[in-house]
Structure formats: structure tokens, C-alpha cells
From TrEMBL:
Gene3D superfamilies membership: alpha/beta hydrolase
The protein's name in its UniProt record: Pimeloyl-ACP methyl ester carboxylesterase
AB hydrolase-1 domain location: 3-209
Species of origin: Amycolatopsis umgeniensis
A Pfam family recorded for this sequence: Abhydrolase_6
Molecular function via GO: catalytic activity
Top-level division of the source organism's lineage: Bacteria
Coiled coil: none
Amino acid sequence: MDFVLVHGTTQSPASWDRVAKLLSAAGHRAIAVDLLTPEDLPAEGYAQHARDQYDGERPVVVAHSGAGVLLPSIAEALDARAMVWVAAYIPDFAGGKTLRDEVQALFEPEWIGVDPTADPAKASEFLFHDCDPETEHLALDTLRLFAPAVLATHPAGPAPEIPSTVIVPTRDRTLKPEWMRQAARDRLGVTALEIDAGHCPHMSRPAELSGLLTGRA
């Protein structure tokens, strides 16, 4: 099985290294794509950018955090067999609201306006609070800002006809867990799986997250 791993807005593809190694050890292939480009692209442009970095067929596409905005486009471009939303924003397919429209409902109030890439202490507090010291050090090294305007303003199209799994970290300090659970039910028609972790379980709980990925795939 191939897994295409999509980084979120505050980390580089290196954030997936531990999960990728575990997936590879289990006999799968894992490709962490890099969405950073010299200039902002439309959603379809980022989907093609991901397509250019993947040479396989019918992967499971896994997106973290704000990359949920791009997950449907990337999954369709790669003819994905499944999508996995990890602590991720799920677009409002029926209502047409954008991520910007949903900031107050989606994010924990203390997170709004924080740039963790400019403040390691804030990154540790909000993103990596459940990491052991060694993992926290590694996680801080993955910090990188990826915040193109398309993430905030892209209107969702029709709900994709690709099976979805939603993984909600119960100790997330950035996205509200209850919002993610409700969005999974209302927007994707699925019941979310839960993981005892903060916003970045690929850093703090890589073995448990890898098990969920392979189990659902």
C-alpha cells in the first residue's frame, strides 16, 4: 500500500519521518510530499504539485491540519483509494463556508493569531505539549510556515466520493476536538477515530497513528 503524506501549515515534510519509517517497516511505501512553492497556487495547482512528486497508483492520502483544505483536490488528482484527515480541517462541502469563515468555531481561542514558527515556546505549548523532550526537540526542527491564501479562501466543491477516515486527537490545543468530531459526522458521514494526543500525533504518537493508518487502509 502507498501512503502519500501531506504536511500542515506549520511543519515541513520532515514532520512525517517517524510515521513514514514505521509504514515502510510494515511493508508499505510512504511519500511525504512538499507543498512549498515559490508562489501561491490555486488548490488544483497544489494538487498537481503533489501529483508531480508521486509515481505510484491509488494511494491513501493523509493530510494534517490546514492541509485538509487541499486534501480532496490532492486525493482526486492522485486517484486515491482513501483519504485520512489527521487533526485536519474538513471543508464545508454543502454550505460553502471557507476556512476563514470558520476560524472562531474551529480553533481554540488561545491559538488564534499565534505563529509557532516564530515562537518555539508557543509551538511547544500548542503543538508539541504531549511530546517527550527528545521528540519535542525533533518536532521544533520541523517548524516551517506554509500559509498560502488558498487555505483560508478556497470554497469547497462537492464532497468527494472517496472513502474517508477522520482521526481526532483528544488533547488538541489548536483545533477543537468536538468541532472535528461533528464535522466528520455532518460533512463526511463518518464517526471519527480518536487518539490520545495533541495536535501533532505524527510526532508524539507515531506508532499508534501508523497503526490506525494501516488498520483503516
